[in-house]
Design a protein that fits this description.
Blueprint lengths: L5 H20 L14 E6 L4 E6 L5 E2 L4 H11 L7 E3 L16 E3 H10 L3 H9 L5 H14 L18 E2 L1 H11 L3 H8 L2 E7 L5 E7 L10 E9 L3 E10 L2 E10 L2 H15 L4 H10 L3
Length: 289
């Protein structure tokens, strides 16, 4: 073929046009869907005993400081004296902004610190000073889980720092249901801040002001509320909410950031629980901090 001839040039242009058109209309490579905001989500209507939303609710995941709900429950079930004075001893566990060796506090105050401020040392002391000792306390945490039907749950420590503290959204719903027999969980969930008292090493009375780790605390009736975070667990929350005759469990596990976790909780409240616009505005403001 004479490439200089007009028919030859036309043929070459036609081939190029076909090549270009095939490039334009070629199907794009499939794009993976965006990752879920949470590794597990459960919204459960306690009144109708129905699941409203479920994502991986039977997937076993680390739960971080949500473990402290079980720690407190085991203490209460043991009928240990809540007014007994306990001396804080040096510990290797990290995570207390308030307690120091030599301080004297009551078991009740340790419970409040564990539930409200998520104090790891308070949780450890509750287990250490259990009437039957630390090892038996941990066994009882795991036995209690099985008694409550939490068959996919296990605990390796009382604070939630252990990677062996794992559960499912469904099991945590079962735990929430059991916790309602004790008012301390409701009281702790509703307090944005709380003042506890301790005696220092030299006998002086000290006030300890603690802040709730749950930014949504106190906005309306939270029967049970506990947050959690470790690197393996991500940002987690377990709530049992009562509002105008409605009662819902909302459990969210494994969210990559605190803001995403709080935003996800608020979106579920908007979708399923009828609350006023002003209450939503307040929740959104609180969840930023």
């Amino acid at each position: 073929m004479n490439v200089g001839s007009i028919p030859a040039r036309r043929a070459i242009m036609l081939v190029l046009a076909l090549a270009l058109s095939s490039t334009v209309i070629a199907k794009p490579k499939p794009v993976a869907p965006p990752a879920s905001e949470a590794r597990a989500v459960l919204l459960f209507d306690q009144k109708t005993n129905t699941i409203k939303e479920a994502v991986n609710i039977h997937k076993r995941l680390p739960i971080a400081s949500i473990s402290k709900l079980m720690t407190a429950y085991v203490v209460l079930e043991s009928n240990a004296n809540l007014n007994e004075k306990i001396t804080i001893v040096p510990q290797t566990v990290q995570g207390s902004r308030s307690l120091r060796p030599g301080m004297v506090v009551t078991r009740r105050e340790l419970l409040n610190m564990a539930l409200i401020a998520s104090d790891n040392l308070a949780a450890k002391m509750l287990a250490d000073l259990h009437p039957s000792g630390y090892v038996e306390f941990m066994r009882e945490m795991n036995r209690t889980a099985k008694r409550l039907g939490m068959i996919n749950t296990g605990f390796g420590d009382p604070s939630g720092l252990s990677v062996f503290n794992t559960s499912t959204a469904w099991d945590l719903h079962l735990l929430n249901t059991a916790l309602t027999k004790y008012s301390i969980f409701n009281d702790a969930a509703m307090q944005k801040t709380s003042t506890q008292y301790a005696y220092g090493k030299h006998g002086q009375l000290q006030q300890i002001v603690i802040r709730n780790t749950n930014a949504l605390a106190g906005e309306y009736d939270i029967k049970v509320g506990k947050t959690g975070f470790t690197n393996p667990a991500g940002w987690c929350i377990s709530l049992l909410i009562k509002h105008k005759g409605q009662e819902f469990d909302l459990i969210v596990l494994g969210v990559p950031t605190k803001k995403l976790r709080n935003d996800l909780v608020i979106s579920k409240l908007k979708d399923y629980i009828v609350i006023s616009d002003s209450a939503i505005d307040q929740l959104e403001w609180s969840a930023r901090y």
